[in-house]
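#onboarding

Welcome to the new folks! Below is a worked example of what a typical request in this channel looks like: someone posts a single protein sequence, and someone else replies with the predicted structure as tokens. Don't worry about understanding the tokens yet, we'll cover that in week two.

Example request:
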Amino acid sequence: MGWIRSLAGVALALSVSLEGTEAAPTWPSSVDELEDIMFLNTGYRARGFAAPVTPCGFSAQGPGRNAAAEFIRVAFHDMATGNVYLGNGGLDASIVFELGGDNIGPAFETTLTTLAPYLSSRSSLSDIIAMSVYTAVRSCGGPIIPVKTGRVDASEAGPPG
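Example response:
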């Protein structure tokens, strides 16, 4: 019978400690899709986002190509014209409108084609490009790079430069 009193005491303590607490629903979160793309690389419902850059020197395009380097190059060329002072450019997926000119070579089209299947109404291409940098760096043994999400894709080419 003593254990019933103990159990009742625990229940009372829990009800008192939870009294007045409310939490807004947190699922689905706006980042759930991006987290799934980024981290579900093996097993059930695997997205395989890291497959094109695993191992580090691999490229499905054949010898002489390095998909990890190409992922990073696309991100660099997308954000290179960003101007914090003017508040324009940056990592905004404007590179899709800027192919040719300074952005020549097969790496741009190959990388954007590789990343395209992950684009949805719940994931922006600019966030996917940012995650591709994280994935490429990690697959090559580099440090963990924090990835913040919530970017909005550009609707036109960025500023020249």
